Amino acid sequence: MDLSSINPILLLASLMVAATPILLAAIGELVVERAGVLNLGVEGMMITGAICGFAIAVETGSPVLGFIAAAVGGAVLSLLFALLTQFALANQVASGLALTLFGLGLSALLGQGYVGVKPPSTPQLDIPLLSDIPVLGPILFNHDPMVYVALGILAATWAVLKYSRMGLVLRAVGENHEAAHALGYKVVRIRVLAIMFGGACAGLGGAYVSLIRVPQWTEGMTAGAGWIALALVVFASWKPWRVLMGAYLFGGVTVLQLNLQAAGIAIPVEYLSMSPYIITIVVLVIMSTHRSGAPASLGKNFHASG
Amino acid sequence: MFKLEKRPQPSKMWTLLTPPLAVLATMIFGGLLFGLLGNPPVEAIRTIFWDPLFGEFAFYYRPQLLVKGGPLILIAIGLSLGFRAGIWNIGAEGQYIMGAIFGAGAGLAFYPMEAFYIFPIMVIAGAIGGMLWAGIPAFLKVKFGTNEILVSLMLVYVAEQLLASMSLGLLKNPDGFGFPGSRNLQQYASAHNAELITGTGMHWGVVAAFIAVIFSYILLNRHMLGFSIRLTGEAPRAAKFSGVSPARLILFCLGTSGALAGLAGMFEVAGPAGQISIDFNTGYGFTAIIVAFLGRLHPVGILLAGLLMALTYIGGEIAQSNLGLPAAAIQLFQGMLLFFLLAVDLLTNFRIRLASSRRKGVA
User: Fold this and answer.
1) Does the CA dihedral A300-A305-B1-B4 come out positive or negative?
2) Which residues of chain B have pLDDT under 70?
3) Minimum mean pLDDT among A19-23, A132-136, B49-53: which range?
4) Coil, helix or strand for B3?
5) Residue B154: which of A83, A91, A277 has the nearest Cβ?
6) Is residue B9 helix, strand or coil?
7) Higher pLDDT, residue B19 or A299
8) Which CATH class is domain B63-319?
9) Is B342 within 8 Å of A94 when comparing Cβ atoms?
10) What is the DSSP letter of A119?
11) Inter-chain touch A97–B6, beta carbons under 8 Å
């Protein structure tokens, strides 16, 4: 084993890359849950976004179009969930699971012709001056644009939820849909929009995995990232900035275990690969002891009777 | 416009009618999907649903119905108990893997000794393996209130890594010329879960599935515990007032479903699969979720739904080799089935009325 082969600067730099997919998916799910809807289909929307983005990027040669397609793909798939839970009033847990199973099948079908294909590469965004700063430069300012887009979405989500009227209405719907309805807000319409936003974010996160992080297409390649994103929202107590903290924590664990694998540490590879999942469980346990901030109407269906 | 009116009680008629309706809708939309993929739709649907039962080679495929249906039913019965009470065990796939590892491990510990008691020990070990794995989310839920959905699912990925580690390390066949995978239990008479009646596909796992169906029927309809499960699912507040202990219920439901999933894994590894290998698990644990819902969480319904889902597996394989239908199309088809089922469930819980203009003004 040679731990000196691990470069701490590169480690921290790749941490930001590893954290981005779950960060994107988790922001989306955070908005959905703040609107009072529990969508367990994140994994399905992510993997669908991954293949939509990959296919379009390969066909058009443009990663940007790929990411747009991924967002659209994720949002369209999430509409199925919206249809089931908001209009057919189906159980949200079951519908979310159905979405994941359906998305895994759909993506495998769509991705048949794309196994082993190389996607067009996304250029690094070398911010002049900033990226030349020693140590901090390569860690913070030498990434692909999506890393910053994700941070931008996070900041925007936080600002909208906290300071805008739209955010207030969305939170009202999530806390007490009966009261929000009585005040004249369109509960179902707001929730459908939130669900679509969640789908688009999950799609972006998936495309980040297939276009930048890996970059290639294999079936089921998101490997539970969607579920980790769900756990992240609980970990963050439904607060946007804590999602960032959580995403970097999980990104850090992932990158560290990959580096330890490469360094040839005496722990078998399988046990290292387990670590992100086990840490997720440990964190969930710690967070559930002082549970706070869950939207009061989370997971409950709304039906205006009368 | 249409207007939904909540029924005071779920409609009995629609409870029975919605699963066939969902299957029919899936067949139609699945056929269209297969058509889009360039396969003749009617032929594809016939290949999946008809050929395995009544086609030219049906004698070969019919036994497969029990082989594939057995584990699905066994797992789904366990899941249905929890689902009824609002306890969501999503990680049956992981419990299935752990049951297989424990069961095969117990059997291989005796190798090459031959004795009548080896197989029963493996059965018990398999059940314990699954139960322990499901016990983790149960314990965490009872003790700390941790979400059992996420924990049980995370443990699937952990179990998959353990499976890889076992087939490359501890349980690797010492005479296997370095290939990954354990000894083949089919060649170890005392541990082999052999076909009980030749040509039927009937093995001990299928027997266990039938027993589970009967026991769960009795439990839900004739036993106090079953009543508590149903009460908790339908009226949680009433259950609390009548003194049902949520902790006991969580431990029971997760433990039982884990044990049954573990049994399914153990019977599979000792029978049809034969050995522990990296790709041993094939998603039964997830498909069983669809089976449980399709069977309306009712034991008899699950029995039928399990056989139907087994049919789509077998028919899917035939369609794959004969028509070149991609394997993913079948996975999509199964997911679609759950979607349609959840959608048509609207009819069970609500009445659809045409809202007249007069009433619309009031509303």
Assistant:
1) positive
2) 1, 355-363
3) A132-136
4) strand
5) A277
6) coil
7) B19
8) mainly alpha
9) yes
10) P
11) no
* Whole-angstrom distance, CA of residue B260 vs CA of residue B215: 12
Place of tokens 């590169």: A10
Q: Collapsing DSSP states into helix, strand and coil, what is residue B75?
A: helix
In 3-state terms, what secondary structure has residue A142? strand
- Position A306 confidence tier, pLDDT thresholds 50, 70, 90: very low
Contacts of B164 in chain A (CB under 8 A): 270
- Supply the pLDDT for residue A235: 84
Query: Cα dihedral angle (A255, A261, A266, A271), rounded to 10 degrees?
Result: 70
| CB of B179 closer than 8 Å to CB of B103 | no
Q: Cβ separation of A288 and B334 shorter than 8 Å?
A: no
pLDDT at A292 over 70: no
Is A56:A67 a contact under the CB 8 Å cutoff?
no
Kindly report, residue by residue over B8-19, the tens digit of the pLDDT.
777 888 888 888
The closest of B332, B346, B314 to B65, measured between CA atoms, is B314
Amino acid B355: pLDDT: 64
Domain ranges of chain A: 3-115+139-289
Angle in degrees, CA A93, B262, B297, rounded to 5? 40
* Residue A136 CB contacts under 8 Å (≥ 6 apart), including other chains: none
CA B320 to chain centre: 23
The radius of gyration computed from the CA coordinates of chain B, to the nearest angstrom, equals 22
pLDDT at site B361:
42
Q: How many Cα atoms within 13 Å fall on the side-chain side of residue A150?
A: 31
Output b/e per residue, B149-161; b: 16+ Cβ within 10 A: bbbbbbbbbbbbb
- Residue B113: the pLDDT is 81
Alpha helices in B111-184 (DSSP H): 118-144, 148-168
* H or E element in which residue B2 lies: strand B2-6
Which residues have C-beta within 8 Å of that of residue B267, sequence separation ≥ 6? B70, B71, B74, B103, B123, B126, B193, B203, B204, B205, B208
Task: Tell whether B200 is within 8 A of chain A (Cβ).
Answer: no
The CATH-assigned architecture of domain A3-115+139-289 is Orthogonal Bundle (1.10)
- CB distance A270–B326 less than 8 Å? no
Q: What ipTM, to 2 d.p.?
A: 0.85
Domain definitions of chain B by residue range: 1-37+326-363, 63-319
